[in-house]
Each structure stands twice: as C-alpha cells, then as structure tokens.
Amino acid sequence: MLDPKWDANGLITGVVTDTASGELLMVAHLNAEALKLTLETGEAHFWSRSRGRLWKKGETSGNVLRVVEARIDCDQDALWLKVEPAGPACHTGARSCFYRRIKSDGSLSPEPPSGSA
C-alpha cells in the first residue's frame, strides 16, 4: 500500500520526467493534498515552499503536466512522475529546469541548450 514518508515539513520530493524522451524536467515537492490531487486529476500538483501554498503546474501558463505514470521509491520517500508536458516545464520558458550546465571553473552556461524553449 502507498504510505509516503513525509519529511518534517510534511513534504515528499517529486522528480518529473518526460514520458516520451525520458528527459528530466523538474524537481518539486508535494504534500498530502498535492499528491491526492495529482492522483485524482491526472495533472501534477505541488506544494510551493517559496509561496507557501498548493499549486497546479501550469495554472497560469497553461503548461500543465499530464501524469502518465506515478512511481514511489523503495523507502516511499520520493516520487517519480512520468508526464506529458503541454509546454515548457520551467518558469523561464526552458523545456527543462535543468538547462544550465556547470563548467569546470564553477561558472554556469547562461543559455538553455538547443531544443529548449
């Protein structure tokens, strides 16, 4: 049975990948309500730590994440959501939130890689 191991703040980490390409799109947090809504609606919901509130991914941009499959790890303390994105996953407009590469000198590549929005 599903029995998530919430952290001290009542959250669990969610890793989100594109079901078609396998690309890592984003990492976010879910509380019990976000997980319930995600499973019930088939669209990704998260808990925003910075805003201190529940949010549906794409609620303002329209770039919703349709959940194709949800998995939980062996310890039930992390989720993996395989999704079909309706647009860029990152609020910057990049396809993935992980568009910056770390260079050997510690600097970051400033531009999203080709193929990003």
Automatic annotation (TrEMBL):
Residues 26-99 form the Phosphoribosyl-AMP cyclohydrolase domain. It is an enzyme of class 3 (hydrolase). Binds 1 zinc ion per subunit. It holds the Pfam family PRA-CH. Its cofactor is Zn(2+); Mg(2+). GO terms for biological process: L-histidine biosynthetic process. Its EC number is 3.5.4.19. It catalyses: 1-(5-phospho-beta-D-ribosyl)-5'-AMP + H2O = 1-(5-phospho-beta-D-ribosyl)-5-[(5-phospho-beta-D-ribosylamino)methylideneamino]imidazole-4-carboxamide; 1-(5-phospho-beta-D-ribosyl)-ATP + H2O = 1-(5-phospho-beta-D-ribosyl)-5'-AMP + diphosphate + H(+). SUPFAM superfamilies: HisI-like. Pathway: Amino-acid biosynthesis; L-histidine biosynthesis; L-histidine from 5-phospho-alpha-D-ribose 1-diphosphate: step 2/9; Amino-acid biosynthesis; L-histidine biosynthesis; L-histidine from 5-phospho-alpha-D-ribose 1-diphosphate: step 3/9. It is found in: Cytoplasm. Keywords: Amino-acid biosynthesis, Cytoplasm, Histidine biosynthesis, Hydrolase, Magnesium, Metal-binding, Zinc. One of its GO terms (cellular component) is cytoplasm. One of its GO terms (molecular function) is magnesium ion binding. Homodimer. Catalyzes the hydrolysis of the adenine ring of phosphoribosyl-AMP. In the C-terminal section; belongs to the PRA-PH family. Belongs to the PRA-CH family. NCBIfam families: PRK00051.1. This is Phosphoribosyl-AMP cyclohydrolase. The gene is hisI.
